Structures are given as C-alpha cells and as structure tokens.
Amino acid sequence: MLISLTIRNFALIDSLEIDFSKGFSIITGETGAGKSIVLGALGLLQGKRADLSSLKDKEVKCVIEGHFSVAKYGLNEVFKDLEIEYEDITIIRREILPSGKSRAFVNDSPVNLSDLQKLTEHLIDIHSQHQTMELSDENYQMQIVDAVANNENVLIKYKENLIVYKKAQSQLKELIQKQADLLKEQDYNAFLLEELVQANLDGLDQLELEQEYEKLNNVEFVRESFGQSIGLLSDDEVGAVHRLKEVKQILQKTSGISKDYEELYNRIISVEIELKDLSDEIENQLESVSADPEQLNLINERLQLLYNLQRKHQVTTVEELLVIRRDLEERVDLASGIDDKIGTLEKEIIKIEEILNKYAGELSVSREKAVPTLVKQILEILSLVGIPNANFKFDFTTAKSFLANGKDELQLLFSANKGMDFGVLKKVASGGELSRIMLAIKAILARYSNLPTIIFDEIDTGVSGEVADKMGVIMKDMSEHMQVFAITHLPQIAGKGNQHYKVFKTSDDETTTSQLVLLNYEDRVREIAQMLSGKDISDSALVHAKELLSK
C-alpha cells in the first residue's frame, strides 16, 4: 500500500510530504484546490508521460516520490520478471528536469516507463470518472469474469502458448511467401542452371582456350611469317646465319690480340649458336602448324557460349560463373526442400492449437460457472445503491480464432428495471448507473484481487442522500481488503473514512500554493459541516457532521 508521498516543485505544490495509513482515507477540498494535482503526481509514479509545464519553478527539477509497502502482496516474481530489485518497502521516484528530460527510479535503480507501468499495475489503481467507460470494453469485462473465476494460472499458460503459436504462424507465413517467390523463379532458375551445367565449366581454362583459338585462326599467316623468317635466317648467300659466320671468321683473326677482342669473338660464337637454334625451332614450329577447321569451329563455339553466359550473368570470368551456378543449385534445392519445412511447421502448429483449445475450453467452462456468482454479487451491491431491480446477462459466443484471452467473445447486457428488455450496457445505462455499476465491480474485484491500493476520484458524482451513504459503506467494506482513497464532495462518504485529508490553496502577493494535510477530529467535523451547509457553518450542520462521523 502507499505509505507516504513526497512532491516537490510540481504544479501549485512547492513541497509536500504526507504519510498515509491503511483502511479508508478521504480526500476533500474545494474545486480547483489541487486534488487533481495530487492525482497527477501519482500518475507520474504510474509511468505516465511527464510535461515540462508541470514544473512550478522552471529552473528547478520536479521530484515525485512514493513509498509502497509490498511485503504482503507476493510481488517478488513481478519484480524478478521486470529485472527490478525487490524491497519490502519499495520506493518509486520520478524526476522532471528543467531541460524537459524525465527519469524514473525504483529502489534507486533507473527503469524505463514501460516497466514502471507494468510494475505499478500491481500496486495502485486510480479510478477517475472517464475510466467508467472501461465497463464498455469487452476485454475489461472479461477480466472481471476471470478474476471471479480465478483463471489467472490458466490464462498464463494460454498466453504463453499463444505467443509460441503466433510466432509459428508468422514463420509459416514467411515460408509460404518464400515458397511462392521461389516457385515464380523456379523454372527460370532451373533453365539458367541447366545452361551452366551443360556448359561444362569445371576445369575450363578460358585463357588457354582463347590462345588455342588464335593459333588455329591464324595458321596461314603464321606459316607465311615463319617461312619468311627461316629464309632470312638460313639463306646461303644473304641469310643472317651465313652473314654471322663471316663476321665470326673476321673476328677470329683479331681475338688473339687482346682479351677484349677475344671476348667479342666468344660473344659472336654464342650468338651464332643461339641464332642457329632459333632458326631450327622456327622450322620445327612451322612443321607443326597445320590447319584444322573442325577444331577451330569447336573452339569458336565453346568460346561464344562462354562469352554469351558471361554477358547474360554480367561477369567476366569462369570462376564467377561457377559461383552463380552454385547459388542457382542452392535456390533450386531450397525450392524443392521448402515443402518439408512447411509440413513440419504445420504439424507443430496443429499441436499448439490443440493445447490452446484445451486451455480455451477450460477458461470457457470456468467463466460460465463464475457468471452466476458474479451477477449475484453485483446485484446485491446495486440494490444497496439505489438500483434494486437491475439485472445482467453475460452472453458468450465462441470465436473462430484464438483471442488474447481465449476463444470467448463477450457481450454484457443490462436491464435497470423489471420488465425492461436487456440492452448493451454502454447503450442503455445512464452515467449515474455506470458509476454505481463500476463501484460494484471494483468492490467485487477487491475480494478476488491482490491489489494494495485503489483511489476513487469522485465516483459518487450524480448521487446523494441514502445512495451516497451506501456507496460510502461499500468503499468502507473494500478497505477491509485493501487501502482505499476516495476523493469526494459528499459528506455521507467523507464521514465513513478512517482518516481524512484536505487539499487547500494558500496565496500571497507573489504565488499560489496547494497543500494537503491530515485533519484531526475537530477539523473533520468542521470540514464535513462545511460540506453540508457551505462556508457559513450552522450548529445543526456541526451536529449532523458529528452524527456522520459516529456511524
């Protein structure tokens, strides 16, 4: 439960530190005194978005801090799941910096707003007037039934399997789409693969093939060139070899004169040997050069096929074509093997559906059993608060698909008077009736839930007299199971509180400030008397106030 609240530099509050007790607490104050400011501060502790305009002094940071006693509520697992350090007295703090940046802390460890919201769902419920419209929400209606039916454990198992089911469905959808995409490309990929397979590219040396083609394509030119070269080298009268022999004979005569001349002679001998060898090699090559039109044609066809494939796949080497071939093989194999993956996943989904249907069936049976008890309890409370002839119907239908909380779809029907046809709650119930129905729901949930604290923000709007008194009794009864706050304008309810807090404003020449204080008995008498008779408190109002406090 909330045991203390500290507010600094928030809206009209400079600094406020207030302690709270268990049981039923009343908060009163004139319109505009600052009750909504206190609720706003608590809203920040619940993880609501911060606003720089909330700072009273724009140069100083705002701090909201709440201390919650949580030892009795079994929240260790909640803290563990959120990876937040558990403390029996848990401290939640929000800070709004002048820069506009907001920070949140739980037990002095920083947390994000999402985790803070998840945590405070288990700590405090602030019920304002607009939240009465939650009654029209099917999910909220189902939560009420599930609370009375004690379906929490089954719901956890159902939701765990639903997560697995949705993930498997998503994977199946992706596989089916992938299969469709692959099938569209299957024929074309198979055609491309077949082309590359038929090309027999393994071990192919493109450069060697191109060189062989050049040889065969230039046979006549090579033969003519080689023939001319041999003639120029070997002619008995003008050939280079003959002329070189003459030079050798001349230099031989001078070789004995000096070592330098001898070196020249030796070099001529080496050149002669090399030239003779070159001439013989050209002659041998000439003998091997022969025309082979058939081989030339085969090589040309092979190269043209290779060039066509390279152009088609926008590459320049055989190695790149081999990489493309391997990729196509994988695609073709994937398209063939994806059926097996789809089949396996479909079987898994069927198994999960069986589990989900089992839990959904258990939820349906449990809900049907709980509804009579729930309706009975609601009607008993509504009878106390001035709707004695009300009646409810919880119409369940089975959805074709799995919903977030089972397969039940719910329509809550309401009739306020005998003989009146049932209608959809949000269409046939008045605002005052919705407020009292919501109070009845909250009172019932207090018996089944483990929520530490609830705050009612003027849930009594539109009622008075005996009905208001009964509403006060109901909230008082709720406080036997949880900490209850009621922000109210009705003296009948204010008199039921175990403790009473007042919000008021003070002003000086420069600023207006809101304050919240705990009233003693005498102050409570005057506050309730003022609620009864206005600012001019009469003696009868004081007597009446004491009577309300003595009940």
Automatic annotation (TrEMBL):
GO MF annotations, alphabetized: ATP binding
Q: Which Pfam families match?
A: SMC_N
Q: Name the GO terms of the biological process aspect.
A: DNA recombination; DNA repair; SOS response
Q: Supply the CDD domains for this chain.
A: ABC_RecN
Q: Which UniProt keywords apply?
A: ATP-binding, Coiled coil, DNA damage, DNA repair, Nucleotide-binding
Sections of the chain in a coiled coil:
261-288
Query: Which Gene3D superfamilies has this protein been placed in?
Result: P-loop containing nucleotide triphosphate hydrolases
Does the entry feature the keyword Lipid metabolism, yes or no?
no
UniProt keyword Nucleotide-binding, yes or no:
yes
Example of a GO cellular component annotation carried by this entry: bacterial nucleoid
Q: Where is the RecF/RecN/SMC N-terminal domain?
A: 2-510
Family membership: Belongs to the RecN family.
Role: May be involved in recombinational repair of damaged DNA.
Q: What is this protein called?
A: DNA repair protein RecN
Q: From which source organism is this entry? A: Myroides marinus
